[in-house]
């Protein structure tokens, strides 16, 4: 089979690999689609360190079970995965905080993932509930968003909201946040330098969109009378984005630095200024099992519109071009397929 292998920083190649063989309890998934995540782009750049190359990347996947050695899994079931394979017994796992488990192994991070024609789901993953099955009414074009939607739902639960929110970035995550914010009844502003992505945000219900020019920020400040209650940064949290978040939030407001940050980026805070500004600073990442189950239910209910998000498809043999496309911010969501 063909697979996209992250060999080392700045090195991605297409490999011919054997189709995975199963042992007792394992499941073989034929991949239909797999989305390119910003974390994969960051790993390739060397900005994050929670990957163990060489590895087949890909964790936002949709597929069909084509071989099962597990008594609870049937051939033909449409599936995706909870990509965090944790021990299942530690206090963190018992409290639905799998991402803090000390023995976690990530699909597409540490073990081979979905940028391939087939992927093996190990028995331990099935036994600990990390294989997520959905009805056939959920198409692969929507199913691949189950994991990112679960991340956003987890962040929405953790973040402090009042009446208004500014979302930084109109990539797939920012556009999911836009829809969730509108569902929550919030006045929703979206800031994004790329015009084609702002246009998508407007079709998905954003009340107003802005570019990130000084003129646009001044207009934003005027319209919001000095800022919004909450800012969610769903883009790379480099220094300029961090500074922008503080420009947009009003005193007493909440900033969630949801997006990844380049390795070595720091947040320097004058504690006296923070004290009197009353800002609530936080970071949300990943998902819980509960947020993935909520995501699954929303997909079944067709509660969100994913059609404008999936814009670019590449076959696996063009995987390097797919990564270039995603890294350049072309379209919105880039996916690969067999």
Primary descriptors:
338 residues, single chain, alpha/beta, Rossmann fold, globular, 2 domains, six-stranded parallel beta sheet, Quinone Oxidoreductase, Chain A, domain 1
The tally of helices reads 12
**CATH class group of the largest domain:** Alpha Beta
The CATH superfamily name of the largest domain is: Medium-chain alcohol dehydrogenases, catalytic domain
Category by helix and strand content = alpha/beta
Main β-sheet description: 7 strands, mixed
Outline the structure in words.
It is a single chain. The chain has 338 residues and is of the alpha/beta class. The protein has 2 domains: 2-149 and 287-337, Medium-chain alcohol dehydrogenases, catalytic domain (Quinone Oxidoreductase, Chain A, domain 1), CATH 3.90.180.10; 160-282, NAD(P)-binding Rossmann-like Domain (Rossmann fold). 31% of the residues lie in helices and 27% in strands. The protein is built from 12 helices and 18 strands. Strands 3, 5, 6, 9, 10, 17 and 18 form a 7-stranded mixed sheet that branches. It has a 6-stranded parallel sheet with strand order 13-12-11-14-15-16, sandwiched between helices. A 3-stranded antiparallel sheet has the order 2-1-4, with no helix packed on it. A hairpin with a 2-residue loop joins β1 and β2 (11-16). The longest helix has 13 residues, at 146-158. The mean pLDDT is 97.
């Amino acid at each position: 089979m063909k697979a996209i292998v992250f060999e080392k920083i700045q090195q991605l190649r297409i490999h011919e690999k054997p189709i995975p063989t199963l042992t007792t309890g394992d499941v073989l998934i034929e991949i239909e689609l797999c989305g390119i995540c910003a974390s994969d782009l960051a790993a390739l750049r060397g900005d994050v360190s929670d990957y163990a190359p060489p590895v087949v990347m890909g964790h936002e996947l949709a597929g069909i079970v084509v071989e099962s050695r597990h008594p609870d899994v049937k051939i033909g079931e449409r599936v995706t995965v909870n990509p965090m394979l944790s021990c299942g017994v530690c206090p963190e796992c018992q409290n639905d905080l799998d991402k803090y488990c000390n023995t976690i192994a990530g699909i597409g991070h540490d073990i081979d993932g979905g940028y391939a024609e087939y992927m093996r789901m190990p028995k331990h993953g099935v036994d600990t509930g990390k294989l997520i099955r959905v009805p056939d009414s959920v198409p692969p074009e929507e199913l691949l968003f189950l994991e990112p939607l679960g991340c956003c739902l987890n962040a929405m639960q953790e973040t402090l909201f009042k009446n208004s929110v500014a979302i930084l970035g109109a990539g797939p995550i920012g556009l999911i946040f836009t829809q969730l914010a509108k569902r929550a009844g919030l006045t929703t502003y979206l800031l994004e330098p790329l015009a084609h992505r702002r246009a998508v945000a407007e079709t998905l219900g954003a009340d107003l969109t802005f570019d990130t020019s000084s003129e646009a920020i001044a207009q934003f400040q005027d319209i919001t009378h000095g800022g919004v209650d909450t800012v969610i940064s769903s883009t790379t949290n480099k220094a300029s984005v961090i500074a922008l978040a503080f420009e947009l939030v009003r005193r007493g407001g909440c900033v969630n630095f949801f997006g990844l940050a380049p390795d070595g980026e720091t947040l320097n805070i004058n504690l006296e200024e923070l004290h009197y500004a009353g800002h609530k600073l936080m970071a949300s990442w990943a998902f819980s099992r509960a947020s993935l189950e909520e995501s699954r239910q929303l997909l079944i209910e067709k509660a969100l519109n994913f059609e404008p998000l999936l814009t670019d498809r590449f076959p696996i043999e063009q995987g390097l071009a797919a990564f270039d496309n995603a890294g350049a911010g072309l379209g919105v969501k880039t996916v690969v397929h067999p």
